[in-house]
Amino acid sequence: MTAPATSLTLRGVRGGVGVSSLLAALGHALEGLGERVLLVDMCPENLLRLHFNLPLGEKDGWARATLDGHPWSASAWCLGNHMHLLPYGCLTVQEQAQMEVYLRREPELWARRQASLASHFDWILFDLPQRLPGHCLLGTCDLSILLLEADVACHVLLQQPMTEGLLLVNRFDPASTLQRDLLLVWQQTLSSRLLPQVMHLDTAMPEALAHKQPVGHYAPSSLVALDAASLATWLLTRRAPLAGERAVPTGSAEQRVTLHAKAGVEPAAGG
Amino acid sequence: MVDPVRDAARPGERPRGLAAIWPYRYLRECRGATAATAMLLCVLQALAWLVLHLESPVWQAVRRDHGRWFPHLANKVPTLGDPLRYGLQGLWLLLTRPVVLPRFIVWHRLWHSATAPLRRLRLWHGLILDRLRRRLQNGRIETATETVLAGLSCRQRGVLAGVLGLLGTALALLCITEPFGSQAQLLFSLLLWMLAMVLWRLPGTFPTLLLILLSAIVSCRYLWWRYNSTLHWDSALDLTLGLVLLAAETYAWLVLMLGYVQSSRPLRRKPAPLPVDTVRWPTVDLMIPTYDEDLAVVQTTVFAALGIDWPVGKLRIHLLDDGRRESFRRFAAEVGVGYITRPDNRHAKAGNLNHALRVTDGELVAIFDCDHVPVRSFLQLTVGWFLRDPKLALVQTPHHFFSPDPFERNLGTFGREPNEGELFYGLLQDGNDLWNAAFFCGSCAVLRRAALEAIGGFAVETVTEDAHTALRLHRHGWNSAYLRIPQAAGLATETLAAHIGQRIRWARGMVQILRTDNPLFGKGLSPLQRLCYINAMLHFLAGLPRLVFLTAPLAFLLLHAYIIYAPALMILLYVLPHMIHASLAGSRLQSDYRHILWGELYETVLAWYIARPTTLALFAPKLGAFNVTAKGGLIPDGWFDWRTARPYLTLAALNALGLGFAVWRLLQGPAEEIGTVLISGLWVLFNLLIIGGAVAVSAEVRQVRRNHRVTAVLEAVLRLPDGRAYPCLLSDYSVGGAGIELPQALTLAQGSPATLLLARGRREFAFPCTLSRCLGRQIGIRFDGLSRQQQIDLVQCTFARADAWLNRTERYGEERLLGSVASVLRLGGRGYLRLFEHAPGRLRRLLRPVSRLLRWLSSFLPRSPLPASSIPPFLHMEVSKA
């Protein structure tokens, strides 16, 4: 029996630090290393799918399906051989609030879903929203990474007690003295939490979204794609000890998940 | 044998299909052959296709690696002589390296039957060697010996050692002194040679020691024979000249023997770890003495020193400016390092350092010449030993040079042959270290202040304050250590004249020490320390003996003096074993640090120049001033240093004259002298080629870049103005610019701005630059407008990386003795060609036909094939800050 999936959450310390783009890049990089990856968009903005060339008008997603009473797993997309994507779905503002209430009432929902998915994947990556605590109730997660930029706002937010998990710096620009200094401070004060890797500022990242592709596919020789690949490799080294620590799940998954490849939608390769 | 039209010159354009058999158009249009040549080559090519299996994989392999096996023909315009050149080269390859070539040639039927007995012998030889090697590697012999020895009591062991020692000495004495006739000597030499050849192929220290022992016995035997049987006592002239040569040979013998003692067991010391608690790390004053060097040169050193990993406040950097320049003072204030001057310049560098010692108070003193750029790990690697050994006064590290010295530049051997200093820093200092005799070399070292104060500061009596200071330290019971890890790199001397000037200073200083503070006498030194010091000093007396060797055969050829009064055959039978064994042992000991005959070349270049000052210093040690070695300049045009080359040209002319006399004596002289004439002629020829090497060094090659580019393989990132960033490799760098290699070709405009990102440990820095050259994936960039801080960061990201110079120690392949000899002699030949190129116009016109003929003839000579290309390692790790 293969080791169960490692779950990873990525959340911004503040809004707009580039979580979805990085998650897409990371998923693509992990797939490139031969890992089976599921990307789950927990954000009502529903943007993650755009990195994989899904049509803007596509309304389906796990939240939509949950509200409509459809099987949630049927809204997943197969992207290539090893990568799957579970979009959030298009919800109105009221529906989003409704969903939040529902998720708070059912805190075990995603823990159950995770357990049922665990044997099908090596990695389950969650794109977490900023201000919806219900959407962040995922049960236990193996790795939670907080994304931040090397600026003063993030530095201030880091001092607050709510921040936990590993820290990853995004859009790092060595040409900026402020950013270099902040990183140095963090390297000295937060060395146990700070990832050895930083993601560099690179125009290829926003351009990749414009091309509706993950950056590793859009610009494989760009710096940020290399960063994502390094991060993925680093995660692999973390996966081995994690898999050892965890108890082997008892019994086989009772709910078999079917993940459909929808016709007419090309994975990212369509570019 | 090898098809002549095969060409890997431009792999992309290689003719295919029918054109592969009849490549007439290709030869005419792509390679520029004349119609007749192309036709001939095509006919031969077609014939080759008819007769040989050119389509077979083995032939295909040769065709693919054509440029490697036939380096001189790969990019040449085809001419009528090429088939012959291919033939000769093919034959040469078959003879010299049958194993490396694809098997089919070796198994070629003719060849096969002709060489069968030889191969059987080789196989047999190989089998025996293999068995021996395995036994040695298993350590069975050693364990067997150890078990026998372990069974003995201490006393029994002593008796056994004594008896064996006596027996061995007696046997050695017998081998050295027993006079033999020619046949017995021949047999004796052959036996020892075979033994040496077997030993040469066996790994380990023990065979090395045996090789040294064999060489010592043979050389002693030679010298014994020379003293006993080769002096012509009846003629005053013969005797005088003979004694001069004998004295020179005795010197060479002495240096050889001392060298064996010194280098037989290098210590290979490892760095000692520092305590975890940085409070216990000592305070260090890092001193950078300067006198008249450019600020640009000194800047780089200071920038790198600022980045040395050491607790804040425990490292103080001082610029010791004997030039008292305002710009230096301002610079020191700007970057925050100490600036020390003194009212006078007494005792040059030593005085400068002594003055600085008085105004500083760190426990340790690190010294860097202003052009030696330290790496960040310098102190962490060197200081550990000071904490471990309280009597340690000195830790010296090698002087590494990132620019070519005059030999390397003018001979084109940079990075391919070990340079002059490598023998000393790679082997001799490590050998000295075993006997606690490693000495101070003036830079890239750490000294203990208490020790310096105990001996009254740096020695000021001689012009080589460094060696003299070390000698004093040793005399006062302090210890020294040598760490063979390049922890700094600098600029080599620019011109041959400057190089010679520097060596004259060293030679004069060492001889001054020999006279005023002779290490053989006086208190405080162990016998082996005395020996190591005396060897270092003797080394600089090589001038006169070398001149004697370069002119000795003329004594017979010109003056008809019998300087070696013995039959030619006997001379050969004694000299050849001596030379062969010395080469084998030498190559075994130092092939990584100096190739055969290079020592002769270095000595020849210096001989004339150091002969006079060393002799003078022997008699009047007080004379002579300190001269600063000029570095960091340009050589705008290639030129020939006629002034410096004058002694070489004189020697060459004399030897050429000797060659003429040899021919004359061969034709006109008595028949019984023919052997002697031939030997003298060969000697003269050898001298001519070695002198030719010196001449070649005198032809200064153009050097246009002010900042030397250091080749490297470093990860970097190029960020373009549009915000895109590309990971790339930094392939070379200097403080002014760099070369990078992108993973893919980009269309970039020359002159457009960009940013280079470089990492130092976990930190990253950005450097604004301009694209100065864009060739596909290869980009040249120029740094401009770097702020002071950026300049510091740039030096620390490049020159001062802990691993910056580490990959440079093991880069030369295994030495092939005969190949090395041939390459040095070829350099000699090239020297005369260069001389001709630089000769005045009229002389050149006069000599042109001769040179053309020689050039044409030499184009037929076989070349050694190129090494198989290797891929540079992509990733380089850097030791991160502790």
TrEMBL record, chain A:
Segments forming a coiled coil: none
Pfam families tied to this protein: CBP_BcsQ
Segments crossing the lipid bilayer: none
Protein name: Cellulose synthase operon protein YhjQ
Species assigned in the record: Azotobacter chroococcum
From TrEMBL, chain B:
Catalyzed reaction equations: [(1->4)-beta-D-glucosyl](n) + UDP-alpha-D-glucose = [(1->4)-beta-D-glucosyl](n+1) + UDP + H(+)
A Pfam family recorded for this sequence: Glyco_trans_2_3
Cofactor: Mg(2+)
Gene Ontology molecular function terms on file: cellulose synthase (UDP-forming) activity; cyclic-di-GMP binding
Enzyme Commission code: 2.4.1.12
Domain Glycosyltransferase 2-like: 365-574
Transmembrane intervals: 32-54, 159-180, 239-261, 555-576, 648-667, 679-699
Keywords: c-di-GMP, Cell inner membrane, Cell membrane, Cellulose biosynthesis, Glycosyltransferase, Membrane, Transferase, Transmembrane, Transmembrane helix
Protein location: Cell inner membrane
GO biological process: cellulose biosynthetic process; UDP-alpha-D-glucose metabolic process
GO cellular component labels: plasma membrane
Coiled coil: none
NCBIfam families: CelA, PRK11498.1
Function summary: Catalytic subunit of cellulose synthase. It polymerizes uridine 5'-diphosphate glucose to cellulose.
Family listed: Belongs to the glycosyltransferase 2 family.
Name of the protein in its database record: Cellulose synthase catalytic subunit [UDP-forming]
Organism annotation: Azotobacter chroococcum
